Amino acid sequence: MVTEPLRREARLAADLATGPGIAATVGIRVGDEAPRHAAARAASRLVERIADAGHATIVVSWGRTLAATASMVRPRTTVDVVVADAVGHAGGERMTPAVDVTRTLAAALGASVVHIPSPAFTDDGPSYDALVASAPVRRALGIARTADATLVSIGVAGPSSLLLEEGLVDAETNADLLEAGAVGEILGRWYDAAGREVDAPGYAAVGLSLADLRASRRVIGVAGGAEKAPAILAALAGGIVRELVIDDGLAQALLAAAPIP
C-alpha cells in the first residue's frame, strides 16, 4: 500500500496539536505574502465551516488579522448565525476595531450582529463598574460569553505592541507591564509567560476577560508572524486559548521554541 505524505500545512498542524485539547490550523504563505494574510485565509475557511453548520454565535475581537479574515469570508446564506463583538470599540491607523470586523463578517454571512456599546478602555474604578453594569453592555457581554466560537487576535508586549503604537497604552504603562512580566495581550488584557493576568494600573478593558475565555466553549487564537510565538505559548500555558490558526512560519517558530503546553 502506498501512503501519500501529509501536505505541509497538515503536517505542521499535526505536530502542533500534541497537547491535550490543542487543535491547530496552518495557512501556508504564498510568495511574499504577509504572514497574517496566510493565517487569515485559513481562519476564513474555518469561520465558513462554523457558520455553514448554522445555529451558532461567533464572537470576534479586533485586529488586522481578524479584519483580513472577515474580508476573506465568501458571501453565503446561513441559518440562525449571530456575530458579536468580544471587546469594546478601539482602533487606529493600523488597528481595525472589533465593531468593523463583526460588521464585515456579519454582512458576508447574512448574520445578525451584536455590538458592545462601549469604548474598549476606560478608567478603572466607579466609571468602569457603572459602564459594565449598564443594560446594553451587560446584554452584549452575556451573548459573547455564551458563544459557540470566539476568535481572538494575539498581541505582543513591549515596543512592538500595536496598542502602544496606536496610543491606546502609554509608554510608562507599557514599561510597567514589561517589568511585571507581561509577554502577550488578548482583548486588552496582558498576561505573563504562565498565562497569568498582569494588571495595567489605571486601565480597564471592556470586553471578555481572560477568565471568560477560559470558560468559553471554543476559543481560537488567530495570528501571523514568528514574533508572536512567546505570546502564543503563554496563552496556551494559561489555558486562554486551546485552538490556533496561524501561518507556517509561526508554526515552525512554535515548534522550535518549546513543547506545546
Oligomeric assembly? single chain
Unreliable spans are: 1-5
Got a strand count? 13
* CATH topology grouping: Rossmann fold
Number of domains: 1
CATH class: Alpha Beta
**Which class of secondary structure composition applies to the elements?**
alpha/beta
Number of helices, counting only DSSP H or I runs of 4 residues or more = 11
Kindly report the average pLDDT value. 92
Terminal-residue CA separation: 35 Å
Report strand order across the widest sheet. 1-13-12-6-2-3-4
Task: Please name the CATH architecture.
Answer: 3-Layer(aba) Sandwich
Whole-angstrom Rg:
18 Å
The fraction of residues in strands falls at: 15-25%
| Secondary-structure element order, N to C | HEHEHEHEEHHEEHHEEEEHEHEH
Helical proportion, percent range: 40-55%
Overall geometry: globular
Describe the structure.
By secondary structure, this protein is α/β, with parallel strands linked by helices. The protein has one domain (8-153, 181-257): Rossmann fold. The protein is 40% helix and 19% strand. It contains eleven helices and 13 strands. The strands form three sheets. It has a seven-stranded parallel beta sheet, sandwiched between helices. A four-stranded antiparallel beta sheet has the order 7-8-9-10, covered by helices on one side. Strands 5-11 form a two-stranded antiparallel ribbon. The termini are far apart.
